[in-house]
């Protein structure tokens, strides 16, 4: 009975939040060292809460997602100083950030302003996290108290080309009863993570400033999902479920859907651009040249 | 629900077993095909009774499949009546949709008012694909009907096999050339209103007072749930996750191959370009599964604990459990997501 009591959390961390050369951070008045300190306090608090809590941390950015910590609770053979992750975590994260900075400096930049890190490999990070959770849940004594969860702490905006793999990850999280939570420190809301939180029953936050990060983390994300039901959680309203058309990426309220490949278009046309099927019976469709219809 | 359904070769009796499996089939079917519609009919006493209309919501259907409410099995099964009913219900659907009839048949004969093969021809003329899952033994007329309409016929050996046969029908069948007429369908993507209790409105055809609802973008009527058709203007309303749920059928994950020394060497050349994601966990064999971080043995080693597999595209190593998970549930290869070749 005792080993069914711990919680199971995978943390996906965006290295863009920790890089000192990220212009978005300095514009928002947030210091990377400050953010790192808040994250380390959170991980320590989580590990301290219950000796059976299990924690895995992936840190990454656009092209990679590296495991920086894997703590499997008191039962796995681990020495005392690796139970509290902050020490080793600090070293590994600093090393990763330095490596990324160096790679950005030596790699030829596509254009002059491309020194800043852009985007986060959300689909890859979620896929790895879900595979890991799948294994840990099915081990002997692996079921956590409440539901296993994935917490994404991101500092970048959505990459539209990741839409399909992110949705696949969200649906398999739904099936596996994994909760996807998100804390976003960026200039705009991430509609991927809003939908993820809505579909899996998780929480989505976009705190006003980076200084509020630790407050949000300690209030909502340190405890497991069973305890979370007893907290008074106020959720921001409004999930944008509208689709965007494949041709222009406008967000549309009504559109035309190809019955073969399900791609969405804002205007009727003679053939589908994704699968090449020619359409029959399109009433007066003149595909383009009509007044602008893609809209807010 | 002919009298053969009360036989007890499946525990507790055939009917109870079948109903339970049908409930899980319905949930799995809507999971795989969120934009589809399903209706249920039962054959009893030589007649067919329509239990539910074609609809897109699983919960209402599952609730009806309760043995207590359905009454007891009796009489004969009539396949012709069932085929005629499905023709009348499915005839009016738009041509780009797949039309299917799945029969769970526990009797050994069919008792019909006319020639059942004529009804089978009518099904074929209307592009309805009839499949049968038999519980008792193979029945020749079922075989004829399924062959003529292009469906499948399987007879279950035991309860597990019955479950397998049923769930095999939940994924969409391959399209035949007869159904290749494609159309652009006009659909709407409504926005969800707030959940506050103070913003409750009268929603839908039955005018229920609800707070969480969707607004049709064309006529601004309120609908309670998606997917549905707007009851005022008839526009099909869905949300983008419903479409995205089907995209994995269009972009499947390439299969993983068992690793070998040659493949490992070739992969090492490719993976050198990704120094960040190596050596993340300490292992005694030197390689670990990219998905679940489990230790895996070297390719070609004797007495392998876990079978080592490698993705042909991104060259990362995976274990057997992750292979099953990725290809059956996740539909994303974790390695290929990082811009693999």
From TrEMBL, chain A:
Q: What is its main location?
A: nucleus
Provide this UniProt record's keywords sorted from A to Z. DNA damage, DNA repair, Metal-binding, Nucleus, Transcription, Transcription regulation, Zinc, Zinc-finger
One annotated Gene Ontology cellular component of this protein = transcription factor TFIIH core complex
- Which molecular function terms from Gene Ontology are attached? zinc ion binding
Intracellular or extracellular location(s): Nucleus
List the residue ranges forming a coiled coil, or say none: none
Q: Name one GO biological process term.
A: nucleotide-excision repair
Superkingdom of source: Eukaryota
Query: Per the record's keyword annotation, is Nucleus included, yes or no?
Result: yes
Known role? Component of the general transcription and DNA repair factor IIH (TFIIH) core complex, which is involved in general and transcription-coupled nucleotide excision repair (NER) of damaged DNA and, when complexed to CAK, in RNA transcription by RNA polymerase II. In NER, TFIIH acts by opening DNA around the lesion to allow the excision of the damaged oligonucleotide and its replacement by a new DNA fragment. In transcription, TFIIH has an essential role in transcription initiation.
Q: Its family? A: Belongs to the TFB4 family.
Spell out the subunit comment: Component of the 7-subunit TFIIH core complex composed of XPB, XPD, TFB1/GTF2H1, GTF2H2/P44, TFB4/GTF2H3, TFB2/GTF2H4 and TFB5/GTF2H5, which is active in NER. The core complex associates with the 3-subunit CDK-activating kinase (CAK) module composed of CYCH1/cyclin H1, CDKD and MAT1/At4g30820 to form the 10-subunit holoenzyme (holo-TFIIH) active in transcription.
Q: This protein is called what?
A: General transcription and DNA repair factor IIH subunit TFB4
Source organism: Volvox reticuliferus
UniProtKB/TrEMBL annotation, chain B:
MF annotations from Gene Ontology:
zinc ion binding
Q: Which GO terms describe its biological process?
A: DNA-templated transcription; nucleotide-excision repair; regulation of transcription by RNA polymerase II
Lineage: superkingdom? Eukaryota
Q: Which GO terms describe its cellular component?
A: transcription factor TFIIH core complex; transcription factor TFIIH holo complex
Q: Which InterPro entries match?
A: C1-like_sf, Ssl1-like, TFIIH_C1-like_dom, TFIIH_SSL1/p44, vWFA_dom_sf, Znf_C2H2_type, Znf_RING/FYVE/PHD
Give its localization: Nucleus
Question: Where would you say this protein principally sits, based on its record?
Answer: nucleus
Record's Pfam families? Answer: C1_4, Ssl1
What is the recorded name of this protein? C2H2-type domain-containing protein
Question: Which organism does this record belong to?
Answer: Volvox reticuliferus
